[in-house]
Specification:
By secondary structure, the chain is mainly β. The protein has three domains: 1-51; 52-161, Immunoglobulin-like (Sandwich), CATH 2.60.40; 164-445, Golgi alpha-mannosidase II, domain 4 (Beta-galactosidase, Chain A, domain 5, Distorted Sandwich). It has five helices and 29 strands. Strand 12 and strand 13 form a beta hairpin. The protein starts with 7 loop residues before the first helix and ends in a 5-residue tail after the last helix.
């Protein structure tokens, strides 16, 4: 609903008040789209207009595939009964699903193990305060293109909990393997090819504004302090590596903006890598709580070889791009090496889907860089080394320091050759529902950076 919204108000170049308004407008658009989709799926699945569900902890699920190919994927479903309670002359009570956290030991889907998760959504109703709302996560295989499968979800006496240890390797049982290194980066092996150093962290001091990045010279960047690894494997085949990296980095720029300060702060970056049978990709969920100002934080994905040409998704198609410098001897404003992407970037057979993270770069030595955040304090600033004059009004933007932090979803896929139409189509459809979001942390609520 916002695919062609190209104005400055949503493009990242405006004052804090406008961006707060745009957050509300975006939430409204997403809410309308989600509600419309839900109602259409409910009708298609045969749910009556009153949306009443069977009064039971077991239920039938209709899983739809919006992709133009047969698809296997992980599905997450909230266990919310409707209506939550009923009162009649002869009967009164709450829906059995409303208290499932206290009564259900485990679930199976057509006899296969299912993960049970506690929901962190504050909008979910709790009929009993001490009992969390629950979601179930299941692997659904071979759903036809533009079709659906019916799944029977039933209770069982086996909890099917995750198996927890500190092992560094997970695999999907089909040749896709993920291993975490001592520095917290990943090596992904797929189709007999291994690519190392994935999801490395790059931090650079940024003297720029909402328009342009302006790197700080002699920047120490982020220094890795420690790494924690947790491995969780489930009987459904869903396996996860949870990697927590802690970095020390400068808190902000000096008052004269010439360099970064000597005051250190700690930045924590959590990455969850997940694989499951039949998906053929690695899903990453990355969350960072950002305490620093005046810097750019990126994830780096080396592709293993130099790159001259690569592909990236645009709003309505796919663009072929070059890593060669753009001649600019007649340009007033030198061109940047970064570019906008709308879903994924592919180079040397490595495809990174990163919806909601629109800034990317591919270097000539073959590294795909995805910007997690740029923390800046000015709408436009006059004294930039990367631009001769101001690009807009010189207004301060404290909230553009991104002290709220961010959570983003990415995927990694390794192929033997260059990006194909098939790979591009899969990346676009599989990432369609993923989006980055700002996190409202305690620091943001306390007013830091405002």
């Amino acid at each position: 609903m916002l695919a062609n919204q190209a104005h400055d108000s949503i493009g990242g170049c405006s004052i804090d008040e406008v961006h707060r308004q745009m957050a509300g407008r975006t939430a409204t658009a997403i809410g309308l789209a989600d509600a419309t989709t839900a109602r259409i799926l409910e009708r298609t699945a045969g749910l009556s207009p009153d949306r009443h569900m069977p009064w039971d902890t077991s239920l039938d699920l209709a899983v739809f595939n919006p992709s133009p190919r047969t698809r296997t994927d992980v599905v997450r479903v909230p266990l919310d009964g409707f209506p939550l309670y009923r009162i009649s002359v002869t009967d009164a009570g709450t829906h059995p699903l409303a208290t499932a956290a206290g009564t259900v030991v485990g679930y199976e889907a057509d006899g296969q193990p299912v993960r049970i998760l506690r929901s962190t959504d504050p909008g979910r109703v709790r009929m009993v305060e001490d009992l969390p709302a629950l979601d179930v996560e299941l692997l659904v295989a071979d759903v036809p293109a533009f079709g659906w499968r019916r799944i029977r979800l039933t209770t069982c006496d086996v909890p099917h909990d995750d198996h927890l240890d500190d092992g560094p390797v997970i695999d999907d049982g089909d040749g896709l393997r993920v291993e975490v290194a001592e520095d917290g980066t990943f090596t992904v092996t797929q189709h007999g090819r291994s690519v190392a150093g994935l999801a490395a962290v790059e931090d650079r001091g940024d003297r720029g504004d909402t328009y342009d990045f302006d790197p700080v010279d002699d920047d120490p960047g982020a220094q890795l302090r420690d790494v924690e690894i947790e491995r969780r494997r489930h009987a459904s085949g869903i396996s996860r590596l949870i990697v927590t990296r802690r970095f020390t980095l400068p808190a902000e720029l000096l008052a004269d903006r010439s360099a970064r300060s000597d005051t250190p702060v700690e930045l924590t970056l959590r990455t969850e890598a997940r694989v499951a049978p039949g998906l053929g990709r690695v899903d990453l969920e990355v969350s960072v709580d950002n305490p620093a100002r005046d810097h750019r934080l990126r994830l780096l994905f080396p592709t293993g070889a130099p790159v001259e040409q690569f592909h990236a998704a645009t709003t309505f198609g796919v663009a072929r791009r070059s890593t060669a410098p753009v001649p600019h001897h007649r340009w007033w404003h030198p061109p940047t090496s970064t570019f906008p992407q709308q879903g994924w970037v592919a180079a040397n057979g490595v495809t990174i889907a990163a919806p909601g993270l629109p800034e990317a770069e591919v270097t000539a030595d073959g590294v795909i860089a995805i910007t997690l955040l740029r923390a800046v304090g000015w709408l436009s600033h006059n004294e930039l080394g990367t631009r001769p004059i101001a690009a807009g009004p010189t207004l301060i933007t404290p909230e553009a320091q991104c002290t709220d932090g961010i959570t983003a979803s990415l995927t990694v896929r390794i192929d033997n050759g260059q990006c194909s139409d098939h790979t591009a189509a899969r990346a676009r459809h599989e990432s369609a529902r993923r989006r980055a979001r700002l996190d409202r942390t305690e620091r943001a609520q306390a007013g830091r950076g405002r």
